[in-house]
Design goal:
The complex is a heterodimer of chains A (about 280) and B (about 375).
Chain A (H helix, E strand, L loop, with lengths): L2 E12 L2 E12 L3 E5 L6 H8 L7 E8 L2 E4 L5 H8 L2 E4 L13 H11 L5 H14 L16 H13 L5 E5 L7 H18 L2 E5 L3 H7 L2 E6 L2 E7 H6 L4 H8 L15 H7 L5
Parallel strand pairs in A: 3-8, 3-9, 6-7, 7-8
Antiparallel strand pairs in A: 1-2, 1-4, 4-5, 9-10
Helix pairs in contact in A: 4-5, 5-6
Chain B lengths: L8 H10 L2 H18 L1 H4 L20 E3 L5 E14 L6 E24 L3 E10 L19 H37 L1 H16 L2 H11 L6 H14 L2 H16 L2 H8 L4 H37 L11 H6 L4 H6 L5 H24 L1 H7 L1
Antiparallel strand pairs in B: 1-2, 2-3, 3-4
Helix pairs in contact in B: 1-13, 2-4, 2-13, 4-5, 4-7, 4-8, 4-10, 5-8, 8-10, 9-10, 10-13
Classes of the chains: A alpha/beta (about 280), B alpha+beta (about 375).
Bound molecules: adenosine-5'-triphosphate (ATP) and magnesium ion.
The site of magnesium ion has 4 residues of chain A, from helix 1.
């Protein structure tokens, strides 16, 4: 298994406040890395900096493209364009991430047009094929996003991300906004697309049960720092860091009879020498 | 809900707008007014400078269907006016003379005019027999015997178009400067910000006055017209620029815009295909609400004698005649252009309200 992404000492602050503090990690091809942490711990800022949706203050992001390694942040927009094909993102909010004034056909066709792929006819076929892949009716193409449910919209978002045949897909809370049953459907879909296309996922989530099910490795973030990294088994069965234990203690037990006993957050944090 | 699914965003907005009764009425009135303004040469029975020496300061004439005996006439008519000089006050007083009726005719020949300055014509929508001695002054006449109705219609063309042209210019400046400020940020943003602050802190009326007074009196009417329009919009764009800038800043971070950038869209595509369309409805609303200010601005300047000047006919120029107390008491019909201004301003405001509600068709759908 070869490495796909290598992040070193990535830092980002907003108005003097450090949000991502010197984060480093590697990501292997065709694996799924979960990023967990409480709200405000900097997960979104981290992944958006990696994607260059926001410019980080310092640090390097190296990506192993089909043509070799690239430092994403030293590329000009023009040089970056071909790499955009390989790295895509699925958003959290299926309402906000689709342009309400475009039909599904236009939304899905746009990436192909930007990258100069195919002609009108072949693009149409590609869109139809993609819709089928994410299990949407082919009549969806002519409709506007408002005509779909949350789960269906998220499928449109997935289709848009995958139509360029990327290798790395960043999912920022991509199932958090959905009902539990729809969540399961979307996760199934993502998993089957992964095995079919050999995708690599960077999977941000705050629901640890989802992470446990879906990811190979986990990165635990706490106020901008990576406090622990390991395989799902290691992290869930033998957490090393107190903050990880705190997070794990907040998962409700699948057994409804067992009483919910979250650890006392404050004492734990004090023990660990962390500040709230 | 199931039919709603097949609608385009535009159709959804229209559905919502249609439910707004007052806005629909306002839209109807404005369409009516603008149609009149477009065809003013044809609709008005006289040309604006045509004088009727037999009816100086004549009051509005009633258009009647029933004659003095209570007989119904299918063809409407007006009675002749009889002029008497009041021996006590030496004032001209007009009284209807029920013995002479002038029936109204449609598509009559009258004073020749140039439609839009393009081709000559002499048909008017209505008038009385042009070969007879009769006349029709629906809104009365002024001190030179000019037909107020015709002048109001000609004035509508100037006043209503100055609103639209001015707002068009305002939009152009506001969207361009505000858009670049919001999208580029940095020095350009600061410069535009400071400029709007300075412009907004200057009281507009004195500044308008100073600038208009600087317009050379020798300019032709058409040049003055554009001069005044430019002065009005030079100070109108700041509000719009601020709004556009704010929206650009907010929208730059919105998911669907980020999504567009992540699929590789360049700045141009992001701005023109994603950002501008999604607040075009807000721009239209703001523009609609800005038209009355333009119209009132023109009226104010012309009323003060430093905007448009005769022989240009605008509602403001017409109101200039009604500046003194005597006129208001003796010939109150010269205030009629003011009524048109009021109706237009209210209609634009109501229309703007309706558009604002319809602008975001998703807000209410999401709540349902
Ligand atoms: N554009 C921005 N300007 C200023 N501060 C920001 C900006 N974006 C994020 N922040 C701040 O950075 C911190 C981390 O935000 P971030 O969205 O990365 O957290 P997160 O881990 O994704 O949280 P969540 O689980 O709620 O999505 C927050 O305190 C947030 O207020
Ligand atoms: Mg987030």
């Amino acid at each position: 298994m070869s490495q796909l992404l290598s992040v070193t000492d990535l830092c980002k602050s907003f108005a003097g406040e450090s949000v991502v503090k010197s984060v480093s990690f590697e990501l292997n091809e065709s694996s799924t890395l979960g990023i967990v942490g409480e709200s405000g711990s900097g997960k979104t800022t981290l992944v958006r900096s990696i994607l260059r949706a926001i410019e980080p203050d310092s640090g390097t992001v190296r990506y192993n493209s089909r043509e070799g390694w690239h430092d994403l942040h030293s590329l000009s927009p023009k040089e970056l364009l071909p790499l955009r094909r390989e790295i895509q993102m699925i958003f959290q909010d299926p309402f906000a991430s689709l342009n309400p004034r475009m039909t599904v056909q236009t939304i899905l066709e746009e990436p192909l047009i930007i990258h100069g792929i195919g002609d009108k006819e072949s693009r149409k076929q590609q869109v139809a094929k993609m819709l089928e892949k994410v299990q949407l009716d082919s009549s969806s193409a002519s409709r506007f996003p408002h005509a779909f449910s949350g789960g269906q919209r998220q499928r449109i978002g997935i289709a848009r991300a995958l139509i360029l045949e990327p290798r790395l897909v960043v999912c920022d809370e991509s199932v958090s906004a959905l009902d539990v049953s729809v969540q399961a459907q979307i996760l199934d879909l993502l998993a089957s697309l992964q095995s079919e296309l050999g995708l690599t996922y960077l999977f941000v989530a705050h629901d640890l049960r989802v992470v446990r099910e879906f990811c190979d490795d986990v990165l635990v973030m706490y106020s901008g720092n990576v406090v622990e990294r390991g395989s799902v088994e290691e992290i869930f069965n033998n957490p090393q860091h107190d903050y990880t234990r705190l997070l794990l203690s907040a998962i409700p037990s699948p057994d409804p009879d067992e009483k919910l006993q979250p650890l006392d957050r404050k004492s734990l944090l004090l023990d660990a020498g962390l500040t709230v | 809900m199931s039919e709603l699914r097949e609608l385009t965003p535009g159709q959804l907005a229209w559905l919502k707008f249609r439910r707004h009764r007052l806005a629909m009425i306002a839209a109807g009135s404005l369409i009516f007014l603008y149609t009149i303004a477009i065809f003013c040469e044809f609709i008005s029975p006289y040309t604006p400078e045509q004088r009727n020496s037999r009816a100086i300061n004549a009051p509005p004439m009633d258009v009647r269907f029933f004659d003095a005996e209570g007989q119904f006439n299918f063809r409407p008519f007006v009675y002749d006016l009889e002029l008497t000089i009041n021996p006590d006050t030496w004032m001209r007083e007009y009284e209807e003379d029920a013995s002479t009726a002038y029936p109204i005719r449609f598509f009559t020949r009258g004073e020749p005019y140039e439609f839009w300055g393009l081709f000559e014509a002499e048909r008017h929508l209505f008038s009385v027999d042009p070969n007879g001695p009769g006349y029709i002054h629906w809104f009365g006449t002024d001190s030179l015997g000019r037909d107020v109705f015709s002048r109001v219609l000609y004035g509508a063309r100037v006043s209503l178009s100055i609103g639209v042209v001015g707002v068009g210019l305002t939009l152009f400046l506001g969207v361009l400067l505000g858009g670049f400020a919001g999208y580029l940020g940095g020095i350009f943003d600061s410069a535009v910000q400071r400029m709007t602050e300075v412009l907004q802190s200057i009281p507009t009326l004195p500044l308008w006055m100073a600038l208009s007074a600087a317009l050379p009196a020798a300019w032709s009417p058409i040049t003055t017209y554009f001069g005044v329009t430019i002065i009005l919009s030079l100070f109108g764009w700041t509000t719009l620029a601020r709004q556009v800038r704010g929206r650009f800043l907010a929208m730059r971070e919105e998911d669907f815009v980020v999504a567009a950038r992540l699929i590789g869209a360049n700045d141009q595509r992001v701005v023109f295909r994603h950002m501008l369309p999604s607040f075009s409805s807000h721009i239209i609303t703001t523009a609609t609400l800005a038209v009355p200010a333009m119209i009132l601005g023109e009226t104010a300047l012309s009323f003060l004698g430093i905007g448009l000047r005769a022989p240009v006919v605008s509602w403001g120029v017409l109101l200039q005649q009604a500046q003194n107390y005597q006129v208001i008491v003796m010939t109150p019909w010269l205030l009629l252009p003011g009524a048109f201004i009021v109706v237009t301003v209210i209609a634009f405001n109501l229309l703007g309200d309706g558009l604002r509600d319809a602008a975001d068709p998703y807000s209410s759908l999401r709540q349902q």
